[in-house]
Design brief:
Blueprint lengths: L2 H13 L11 E5 L25 H4 L10 H4 L4 E5 L12 E9 L2 E2 L4 E6 L7 E7 L5 E6 L7 E7 L14 E8 L6 E4 L1 H10 L4 E2 L2 E2 L3 H14 L9 H4 L3 H4 L2 H16 L6 H8 L11 H10 L5 H5 L21 E4 L7 E6 L5 E5 L19 E4 L20 E7 L5 E5 L4 E5 L22 E6 L5 E5 L12 E5 L8 E4 L9 E6 L5 E5 L4 E5 L5 E4 L10 E6 L5 E5 L10 E5 L19 E6 L5 E5 L4 E5 L31 E7 L5 E7 L2 H6 L9 H4 L4 E4 L18
Parallel strand pairs: 3-10
Antiparallel strand pairs: 1-2, 3-4, 3-7, 5-6, 5-8, 8-9, 11-12, 13-36, 14-15, 15-16, 17-18, 18-19, 20-21, 21-22, 22-23, 24-25, 25-26, 26-27, 28-29, 29-30, 31-32, 32-33, 34-35, 35-36
Length: 719
């Protein structure tokens, strides 16, 4: 089509006099509410606002746009303009090709507009090329090589469902392809690929655009294959494996959501789309106009109207399905392998790999003392959950019963606190040990039952010595630093005769370089300056502090602590919030949303709070200090997660740690499988019972939180 002709067609469209076919036979108009007009016939527009589309969109790099008279919002017959693309080339040439098919409710979707995009790193996505599906739902797009990072995805919009005579303007389906140079020869776009692509990319998706930090977008694209095979449009390998296919609800939940979209796609029943759009929209959120926006609403607000969404009409294309509403529309997968056994501590590196300590249980319960109930190695999982460490994890370098402490410095080295080994170990990014074989770094003999391990802004490595060890009864209840990350010049700060540190468990650094430390036995939090001087300490039991474990600091300098217990057993655990000066915040401590006995805690890029609840076996989400990033009407500390927390579809056990990655995925660790078994074990039976006691795997909740820049040094940073 020549440019003069395209301008003429646009003028005629605005005047409402456009013929159904252009002189070249490439442009036609059809009504959603009536069959297409015959060639050459004049089309009479319905009363109300006229919707004008850019007719040359598909050839010249635009996108289909609708005005205020859309199908959903105004119940006006939507006009669907289509440019048949024979002979159209992409703006940068057409040396590359992507072919595929579009299916709706399991049947070919004909005359759907398929547009290929490159995901944006810091700007909006770039359109690469377009095509329309034929009667078999097939398409082929010729496009030029992307100018950016080369992460591509395809959106199919509109199209005529099987058994219908007019296009459905509410259809929008997505497949994230990933690296352009690793694309398959052909892809499928359907409801399953849409659910998989939306949940993994929820934090980056808006309208036609997928954009955000490169690492996060890349890793999100890589994770799509866990859910779906983009070539066939069927389920992927991970979601069907023995762990997720049979032990969790991930598979049936994905199928259920796909069927809900399919009912809208097939317009079965006739009001399926309107019902979907209304049910998926929380207060204060824009009503969606297509299936893609509706799916993204559900992914970003999984707590909203769970039962109402479950009760929506659902197609039966994808089986098996849920037989009852879930607790929330989160989608989580569990990963094993790479040495995972009783995982306890978690940190995520700059590439999105998860580094996990496999620890052991300890305590003073009758018949249960310090003995190994888990592995002794360190596990590395890639951003998609694939194990990069050996079967028993990375070993050597003195790794021995690593505890809660694991931190990554800005060079990518991994520092591990060994509770059992009374030392700190150091691994290179490839897992090669740097620390001394069999011993690790012992800080001049003062390292003792090491727990929380962190890196500050100056590259100093800090760790807490939780309690005395058999080899050093005068050690423990102290804080050690390796200045500049040099283990050869350790400094240990002890405070004998005081309660400054009393079984310290975790530490965090604020923007001023001060350390905050939880005291598990002292039921307090201590603030220490960069020179080891204590400058503030809460009163014992203040602010709900009771066996505090994990600690996190938000971008405003507020301190959040996870309290494993409460003043009484009936109270249960809680989350304490202190302001930057150590004063208890209004409403603190906070409960609800599944809070029973919190252990690990993390802050996301919106300053919302995520808690790994040990006792309740749940992931808890609390509204943070930036309440504008919470659901409408929520105040700081109020639970966003349901009353029982996010349960991961049965994937969760007793959790110890939680972390947020660059894609907005929330990682949690199953530290203990059966707590009753653990607490009843004899010392002699501890090792033999490790498979019953030690927790099973790491669990990833996809697209649930605002991404953060990792490794986490200090308060959370935007990626």
């Amino acid at each position: 089509m020549r440019s003069g002709e395209s301008r003429k067609i646009a003028r005629e469209a605005q005047a409402g006099t456009l013929n159904a076919l252009s002189p070249e036979g490439r442009v036609y108009i059809s009504m959603l509410t009536q069959p297409p007009s015959p060639p050459g016939a004049q089309v009479e527009f319905p009363a109300g606002p006229v919707i004008v589309f850019r007719i040359v969109t598909m050839c010249y790099g635009g996108s289909l746009k609708s005005g205020p008279g859309s199908f959903v919002r105004r119940s006006i017959g939507l006009l669907f303009f289509a440019a048949v693309l024979a002979g159209c080339d992409s703006p940068g040439g057409s040396d590359l090709t992507l072919s595929g098919r579009v299916l709706g409710a399991g049947e070919p979707l004909r005359e759907a507009a398929v547009t290929l995009y490159e995901a944006g790193s810091s700007s909006q996505a770039e359109e690469l090329g377009s095509a329309f599906t034929n009667s078999s739902g097939e398409f082929e797009i010729k496009f030029g090589r992307p100018s950016g990072d080369g992460l591509i995805y395809a959106i199919a919009r509109g199209g005529i469902p099987a058994g219908k005579s007019a296009p459905n303007g509410a259809i929008a389906l997505l497949t994230v392809v990933g690296d352009v140079d690793r694309r398959p020869e052909s892809i499928t776009i359907n409801e399953l690929t849409t659910i998989a692509s939306v949940w993994t990319n929820a934090q980056f998706l808006g309208g036609n655009s997928i954009s955000g930090n490169y690492v996060g977008v890349r890793n999100a694209a890589q994770s799509v294959g866990n859910f779906v095979n983009i070539e066939t449009g069927g389920l992927g390998g991970v979601i069907q494996n023995s762990v997720n296919g049979h032990e969790t609800a991930a598979l049936v939940q994905v199928n259920t959501l796909a069927n809900i979209l399919a009912s809208c796609v097939a317009i079965s029943p006739p009001d399926a789309c309107e019902r979907l759009f209304a049910a998926s929209t929380p207060p204060g959120v824009k009503l969606p106009e297509d299936t893609l926006a509706a799916a993204n609403n559900i992914a970003l607000n999984p707590w909203h109207n769970v039962a109402g969404i479950f009760d929506l009409p659902g197609d039966r294309t994808y089986i098996p399905v849920l037989n009852a509403p879930p607790s929330a529309w989160t989608i989580a997968l569990k990963f094993t392998g790479g040495g995972l056994d009783a995982p306890g501590g978690l940190s995520i590196d700059a590439e999105g790999n998860a580094w996990i300590t496999n620890n052991f249980l300890f305590g003073s319960h009758p018949g249960f003392t310090d003995c190994a109930a888990g592995g002794t190695g360190v596990t590395k999982l890639d951003p998609s959950g694939y194990p990069l460490s050996p079967t028993l994890g990375f070993t050597g370098g003195g790794i021995n019963g690593a505890g809660f402490g694991v931190a990554i410095d800005e060079t990518g080295n991994i520092w591990i606190g060994n509770y059992q080994g009374d030392s700190v170990s150091l691994l290179r990014p490839d897992g090669t040990p740097v620390s001394t074989e069999g011993r690790g770094f012992r800080a001049g003999g003062f390292a003792s039952k090491v727990q929380g391990t962190i890196i500050d802004y100056e590259g100093n490595v800090w760790f807490v010595n939780n309690r005395p060890s058999p080899g050093c009864p005068e050690c423990g209840n102290s804080l050690t630093v390796f200045p500049g990350g040099d283990p050869g010049t350790p400094l240990t700060f002890a405070y004998p005769g005081t309660s400054t540190l009393s079984e310290p468990f975790d530490a965090a650094v604020d923007t001023d370089g001060y350390l905050w430390v939880t005291n598990g036995a002292g039921n307090s939090i201590t603030r220490i300056d960069p020179f080891g001087n204590p400058v503030m300490q809460t009163a014992p039991g203040c602010c709900g502090l009771s066996e505090p474990r994990g600690l996190a600091i938000d971008s405003y300098g507020n301190v959040w602590a996870a309290n494993l217990s409460g003043p009484t057993e009936a109270d249960g655990g809680s989350v304490t919030l202190l302001d930057p000066y150590g004063e208890n915040a209004a409403g603190s401590p906070f409960r609800g949303g599944g809070t029973q006995g919190p252990w690990g805690i993390a802050i996301d890029g919106d300053d919302n709070v995520w808690v790994a609840d040990f006792t309740g076996k749940a992931l808890v989400n609390l509204c943070g200090v930036r309440t504008r990033n919470c659901p409408d009407g929520f105040a700081t500390g109020e639970p966003i997660s349901p009353p029982t927390g996010y349960d991961g579809g049965g994937a969760l056990q007793h959790l110890t740690d939680v972390a947020i990655d660059q894609s907005g995925n929330v990682w949690v660790l199953n530290n203990v499988n059966d707590l009753d078994v653990c607490l009843s074990m004899t010392v002699e039976g501890c090792m033999q019972a490790s498979t019953e006691c030690g927790g099973d795997g790491a669990v990833v909740f996809y697209g649930l939180a605002a991404p953060v820049k990792t490794p986490m040094i200090g308060p959370p940073r935007q990626p």
